[in-house]
Each structure stands twice: as C-alpha cells, then as structure tokens.
Design brief:
Keywords: Antiviral defense, Signal
Number of domains: 1
CATH class: Alpha Beta
Strand content: 25-35%
GO molecular function, one term: RNA binding
Shape: globular
Largest sheet: 9 strands, mixed
Organism: Streptomyces griseoviridis
InterPro entries: CRISPR-assoc_prot_Cas5, CRISPR-assoc_prot_Cas5_N, CRISPR-assoc_prot_CasD
Protein name: Type I-E CRISPR-associated protein Cas5/CasD
C-alpha cells in the first residue's frame, strides 16, 4: 500500500434521478447500483473544462483512486423511451432507459492535494454544469462535500456524515446493525478479494469512447453521525406514509 501523503475530495451525488451505466449499448441503457468511476471522473473533467478528446488531461484525473458510499440506494425505474425526429418527423428507435430514483451517494477521489484543490475549486465554479450520469439528471444540491488533506479514501468514506434524507434515516437507522455499503478501488498490492468493473476511463472522445477493467472491493461501514442535510420534500409533509 502507498505510504505517501494523499488528500481526498468528497462529493455529494443526490438528485431525483441518476443513471450510471457501465455497459449500456444501443437501445437498452442500464444503470449500475452506484456511481461509476467513469461517470464521476467525467463530472470532474467537465467542471474543469477538459475537452472530451483530451486523453492526456483525462489520464491525470483517471489516475485518482475512487470510492463511493451508498447512503440511500434509491429505486431502480425503467423509462420506455419513444421519440420523433424534430425536423423529418421520422420515428426514432424505441429505447429502454433505466434510472435510480431518489438515491444519495458520497463519492470520493484520492490523490495529489494540488490537483484535488483545483478540482474542488472547479466544482464550485464549473466550466460545464455537473450531471449525475446523464445530462437529463441534474444534482439536487451542491456537489462538493469538502477537501480532506493528508487523508485516505477509506477513512473519509467511513467518517463523512450520513447524507441520506431525513425520512430515510428515520426508517433505516439501526445503531447496532445498520451498515452502509462502500465500493472502493483496490490499492496496489492489496490482496483483498475484489470484483471487476469496466469503468476505468481511457478516452471520452465521441469518435471512440474507451474504458478498461478496474478492481472494486466491497466494504461495510456503520452510518456516521447524521448531518443537517436539507430535504426539500420535508416542506410538503411530515407523514412517512404519504
């Protein structure tokens, strides 16, 4: 494992809809159960104004170690998508598009402090607006969740406050047994069993998007101290059954 000091940039990914595809093709656009590294690095690259065909600049961001905590898994929904060409009036191919509704995640990237400092500033003043996997999925709140100096990914994902909505925390907070799932990138030399996911970005070029396999370790952590996260839907009702 690396012994050099690193910093960690944490992000809050919350919105009415999210879609994080790792194997979407043609007419069936699926979503993973949590944000992909490709999707989050793409969000950071867009905020920093990196062009889609600038593979050299992307490589610097793709070298960051990535992890995500599932604070509120949401509900998987399917959109049967029908569209018509606005000019010709021709019916376009029917598609199925899958989304995560009402999900909340804490994502984090670990690496050089100066780089993360620039990305943190870019998130607060982005060149291109952030979206949660698809352009039709804007975030419900600010994405930046703080820069942690001389920190490691695992510690930040274990200690950042639980960001789930108040109604979800009331229903699912079990002090003795409650746990949150963390999906984190395997460290070099680590022998922990891991799954593989094809979401390591190599190029976002429209001519040929390319990804590589990445090792993902699954951990479980206790929900950290609750935050004062604001849920706009609280204004409509306090009744969980509505």
């Amino acid at each position: 494992m690396s012994t050099s000091p690193t910093s960690v940039l944490a992000l809050l990914l919350a919105g009415p809809l999210q879609a994080w595809g790792a194997a979407s093709r043609f007419s069936r656009r699926t979503t993973e159960s949590a944000p992909t590294k490709s999707g989050v690095i793409g969000l950071l690259a867009a905020a920093a104004g990196i062009a889609r065909d600038d593979d050299a600049a992307l490589a610097v961001l793709a070298a960051l170690r990535f992890g995500v905590r599932i604070d509120q898994p949401g509900t998987r929904i399917r959109d049967f998508h029908k569209a018509m060409h606005p000019v010709t009036g021709k019916t376009m191919p029917l598609t199925e598009r899958f989304y995560l509704a009402d999900a909340v995640f804490v994502a984090a990237v670990e690496g050089d402090h100066a780089l993360l400092e620039r990305l943190d500033a870019a998130l607060r003043s982005p060149v291109y607006p952030p979206f949660l996997g698809r352009r039709s999925c804007p975030p419900a709140t600010r994405v930046d969740l703080g820069l942690h100096r001389d920190a490691v990914l695992e510690d930040v994902l274990r200690t950042v406050a639980w960001q789930a909505s108040p109604w979800y925390r009331r229903r699912h907070h079990h002090p003795e047994t409650g746990q949150l799932t963390v999906l984190r990138e395997k460290q070099p030399g680590e022998d922990t069993p891991a799954d593989t996911l094809c979401d390591q970005p190599l190029s976002y070029s429209p001519a040929q998007r390319r990804h590589a396999l990445r090792s993902v370790v699954t951990d479980r952590v206790r929900p950290p101290r609750e935050s004062a996260h604001h849920d706009p839907f609280d204004a409509f009702s306090e009744d969980d059954d509505l």
